[in-house]
Every structure is written in structure tokens, then in C-alpha cells.
Amino acid sequence: MTDALAHRGPDDAGVFAEPGVALGHRRLAIIDLSPAGHQPMGNEDGSLQIVFNGEIYNYRELRPGLERAGHVFRSASDTEVILHLYEERGEGCLGELRGMFAFAIWDRRRRRLFAARDRVGKKPFVYAHGPGGDLAFSSELASLVEAPGYFREIDETALHHYLTYQYVPAPHTIWRGARKLPQAHALVWEGGTVRTWRYWDLHYTPKLHLGSPAAYRERFLEIFRESVRLRLVSEVPLGAFLSGGVDSSAVVAMMSLEGAAPVRTFSIGFPEADYDEVRYARMVAGRYGTEHQELVVRPRALDVLPRLVRRYGEPFGDSSAVPTWYVSELTRRSVTVALSGDGGDEAFGGYQRYLADRLIAGYLLLPRALREGLLRRAIEALPGPKRPRGFVGRLKRFVATADPERERQYVRYFCAFTNDGKAGLYTPEFASRMSGVDSVALVEELYRRADGASFLDRTLSVDMHSYLPDDILAKVDIAGMGNALETRAPFLDHRLLEFAAACPPGLKMRGTTGKYLLKKAMEPYLPRQVLRRRKMGFGMPVAEWFRGELGDMAGDLLLTPRALQRGYFRREELDRLLTEHRRLAADHGARLWVLLFLELWFREFVDGAAALDTGALEPKPTRTVQP
Fold first, then answer.
1. Which residue of 16, 185, 366, 453 is surrounded by the most CB atoms within 10 Å?
2. Per-residue model confidence (pLDDT) at position 572
3. Does 332 lie in the same domain as 477?
4. Is residue 411 part of a domain?
5. In this structure, is residue 613 part of a structural domain?
């Protein structure tokens, strides 16, 4: 199991074992590089043993109080702070930890295991609780399936959900016997039974009342700057991802103001203008004199896909995993820790789908005859978009996702396959097995649980509990740790998130401007072009690529007897998706990517054969830019 995690921790390895229990660890050394930081780590008398993945940013503040209480430290690591804090506070220790973490503590006297995952789900935790009461857990599924007695059986419900969301939503995994511990959850195993519970949540009511907008900006900058400062603690080289968007640019600005100069920044670009942001990244790099490196990815083939399939261990259809992998690979050549802008959109309302929801709500107020009889038909009759991010592509997507039920409309806007799309794709046998499973119901339940008074706040809550941990953070963790790179996200500090949740919705989205408060606060620190540019997102031009070499590869894989004999998808529908996409009759790029990744996953983990050697998605040489 630890061998399967060697990429996450190349600096050290350790095992603690005694009858009935074994804990293993692979270490990426960031704080306390000495042998004293070795894990598994015990307390003074050895009655407790811990394995821990992550960083506790306030460990220096917690340590003096523990020493005054009589705890003896043998290292300078944050790991030992967790251990002694648990001795002192028990399960209540979680409320005092500020950071990202997944850890497990074995209590030898009570024969009890206590484990927890951080508030937003930065660090992963998967586990399997066997029928005999045994528990196995790990950071990745590829490690978990090495546990003795583990049985691989596909969870078809998870597969069904994957085709909608492009990821397998927690607590599901693609394997029936394995589960993800959700964000902000703790777990106790004792006497063969497992108990889990949520120990923290984000609330959108009541709201702050600070008076003037300037007061909100000042409070934001105070909390944000502290969050960045805490994440600069490291005994190894540190840098930042710089996409050219507002969020990563804001992080770089604060890093520079905190004296982390010259900041080392890293960007990925594409030849396609609709996806290339490097010119904006250069503006920020120039303003703060960073040591800036860029990598432009050109599509020749897809060597990276099999690597991603092996690392994720389950289907993952977000194509931005490719540039995320490359920027992590590039960054790791120079540093071991990188700060990112993840979380800014979910905290302050930055995604275009938040704006689309408002616009669609207005569109649905039009008379039905005008809306359906004229506008929709006229837009649907337009030729297929050559550019998915162009005006026609956005217009077609707009009318296709309009739905009077706003919660279901929200899923339609970003999903790969709608319920109707899956019904047409499935074989009759698979459709019958999934007939009572509605993937959209997962989001509807999250909306029911959300406590925001406005639809925007409830939608932010939904994303915080689903898309952020299960897609964005999973993607960044796999890409970063797959390259032995630790990523830290200042926007995901729980105190900053609590502040954002308590801000009025009008400070998050004002008119058609998303992240209004964040942009106003950063006006003194970032170029106007960066603050006022259209949001691009960290995407990949898959639509264009599927009309070339990638489309040929998809056809060669998806239409083979091996793929079709799995019994999930109809050949006619697969052929239609490929043909319409190649002929520009429709944009099926996201759907084809989801299906291609799934088929490669089957070949890697189910068929017992290695994924195809698909060539190379070859990057151009790295360029170091002197701003």
C-alpha cells in the first residue's frame, strides 16, 4: 500500500505494525526536515501513533499551550502538535486546527482509531470497511485496493453519477466496497464498527453588517493577507501557480507584499487564443518582478492521459486535469510547495454559471410562445460552433440548459450528460438497472440543506459541498502529489470562507460582475486588464482536439468490441457523438472526454491490461520570462 503512494512521499517511508494493526506512511518533507519528523510518529509513551498528510498552519501558536500543559516534544513538526492536541482535547482537537489534513491516530490502549479530513477536503481520505469489521484506509484508491482481501466490484451507480458530473461524487467511489470520507468529517473505528460525523460546516446566515463597502474590503484584505502569510511557512523552496486570472494573481500579489520576493511563478498556455492566458500572467509577473516560467502545450498525441488514469484510480472527466498536471510538473522542477488561487470562485461567486443562472431566470420570464417558438428554434438552427467559447457556442448552451426548476437547470449548465442524454446513450440493460437513480437528486438534496436566503448563496453552498472537493481539489491534489508537489490554497482558509459566506450576496455578484468584493479589494494591487477581463477558466481545447488526432483515438477506443462488450453504451449513440462533433454539427467535446477517460480507466484497472500507449501530448520547452 505504501509503495503505491511513493509518488506522494519520495523523501521517507515508515511502518508501525503490531497484532491487529498496521500504519504506513510516505513522506514529502516540508517542515522539520530532520529524522525527528519521521512517521508513523508516537507520543512520549508510545500509546498513540499517528499518520498524517497535510499542513497545520497554526501549529506554532498551538505548541506553547501544549508545552505548558506538560507535553514533551521531540520534533519541530506540525505532526507532533496534532498528536499532543488529541491527547489534550480528544476529538475536540479538530476545532483548533487551521490547515489542510487527513490523519489517523491509533490509540493502543483503547484499540481505537480516530481519523479526520480537513474542513474543505483539500486532502483525500478513502476507506473500506469489510464485512468482518476490518478497516483499510489510504490517500488514494490505487493504494487502498492493495489492502489484503480487497475485492474490486464496480459501483454502477457511481459510474452513472460520473457521466453527469464528470467526477464520482463523495461518498461514492468507483468501487462498491470503498468510500470517500467527505470533507469536514471525522471517523472512529472501534470494535469492528465505524462511526462518521460532520464536525464543521459553512453557514450563509446570519450576515455581517459592516456598513460601508470599504469596511468589507478592509476586513477581506486583513484576513486574506494573513491567510497567505500563514501558507508561506516552509523549509523548502516555494512558488505559486499564476494563471493570469484574478484569484491566482491576487495570491501572487499578497505573497510579494508579504516579502516572499522574488516570488517564483509558473503558467501553462495553449496555442488556441480562447484558452491562453499567459499574456495576463506576464502582466502580474512584471508588476511584481517574479521569476516567471511558462509552458505552452501543443496537441500532438496523448501520452499524459494514461498517466492521469493511473494516478486518479477512478474515472475523472474534467479535462483541465491535463494543464493542471503540466503546471504541477513544471513547478516541481523548481520548488516543492506552490500556492494556488483555488476557492476564489466558490467563495466569492466567480463562475460564469452563477451569471448564467440569473440570465436564464430572466429569459424564462419571456412569453413561452416567443421563448420556445421563436428564439429557441432560431438559436438551435444556427450552425454548430467552431469555437465552444465563442458567441454562438455560449448562446446554444444558454438555451439548451434553460429549465424552470433552477436547481436542475444548474446541473444542466455544467454537466456532461443530462438524464435524457444518458437514456439515449445506455444499452437497454444498463438503462433498466439505472432507471430509479436520478443523479440530479444529489444536487437537489444539497440545495435543500443549504441555509442561504438567496439562490446565489445556496448555489455557493452546493459547490462548496460537491464541485470544489470532488472535482477541483481532487484534481489539484492528484496533479500536485503525483509530482511530489504540495499545493496550498489561501482562499480555502476556513476563516476566510466564513467571512465570505457571511458577506451579502450583492458583494459577491453585482449586476453582471462576479467576485465584486474581491475585485474591488484588489484594485490597488492588480492591473486593470486582469481585473476587468472576461473569465476564461483553466480549461483545455478538447473540442478542437477531438476534431483531429484525439478524435481518431477516441473512435479507435470507444467503438471496439472490447469497449462495447462491457454492455454500458450503444454503438449507434457513440458513433453519432463522434460524427456530429467532427462535422461541427454539435460540440460534444466534454462528453467525448468523459467517455474516453472512462474507457482508458477500464483498460487500466478492470481489464488487467495497461492503457494504450497513446503517443505524447508534447509541450514546448519551458521558457523563463524576464518581465
1. 185
2. 97
3. yes
4. no
5. no
How many residues are present in the chain? 627
Q: Which of 170, 198, 226 is the last residue of a domain?
A: 198
CB within 8 Å of 273: residues ≥ 6 apart = none
| 116 CA to centre of own chain | 18
User: Which pTM value belongs to this model?
Assistant: 0.90
Residue 627's pLDDT is 38
Q: Is residue 492 part of a domain?
A: yes
Please state, in angstroms and rounded to a whole number, the distance separating the CA atoms of residues 142 and 447: 32
C-alpha cell at 526: 492588480
Q: In sequence order, what E strands does 57-161 have?
A: 99-107, 112-117, 126-129, 135-138
Same structural domain, 22 and 110: yes
Q: CATH number for the domain including 98?
A: 3.60.20.10
Angle between helices 440-449 and 455-465 (to 10 degrees): 120
Instruction: Give the up-direction half-sphere exposure of residue 382: CA atoms within 13 A in the CB hemisphere.
Output: 19
> Considering only CA atoms, which of 97, 99, 101, 105 is closest in space to residue 63?
97
35 and 134: one domain?
yes
Whether residue 64 is preceded by a cis peptide bond, meaning omega within 30 degrees of 0, is no
What is the spatial distance between Cα 234 and Cα 107, in angstroms, rounded to a whole number?
30
State whether 137 and 57 are in the same domain: yes
Average confidence (pLDDT) per 10 residues, the chain, 627 residues: 93 93 91 80 94 96 96 93 96 97 97 98 96 94 88 92 97 96 98 97 95 95 97 89 95 92 87 74 95 78 78 93 91 95 96 78 68 66 58 60 71 86 96 95 94 92 97 96 95 98 95 94 96 72 84 93 97 96 90 96 80 37 42
Can you tell me whether residue 176 is helix, strand or coil? coil
The CATH number assigned to the domain holding 339 equals 3.40.50.620
Residues 23 and 145 in one domain: yes
Amino acid, res. 174: I
| Rounded CA Rg of the chain | 24
> The C-alpha cell of 187 is what?
471517523
* Residue-by-residue DSSP string for 488-510: E-GGG-HHHHHHHHHS-GGGT-B
> Where in the sequence is the domain holding 331, given as residue range(s)?
213-269+277-291+321-349+460-532
Would residue 442 count as lying in a domain?
A: no
Q: Do 162 and 228 reside in the same domain of the chain?
A: no
Could you tell me which of 74, 78, 79, 121 has the C-alpha nearest to residue 104? 79
Rounded to whole angstroms, how far apart are CA atoms 255 and 240?
A: 9
Q: Can you give the pLDDT at residue 29?
A: 80
Q: Is 281 strand, coil or helix? A: helix
- Same domain assignment for residues 167 and 228: no
C-alpha cell at 399: 438555451
Confidence (pLDDT) at 17: 96
Pairing of strands 337-339, 238-241: parallel
Residue entry with cell 508588476:
287
Please indicate, yes or no, whether residues 181 and 231 belong to a single structural domain of this protein. no
The tally of domains found in the chain comes to 2
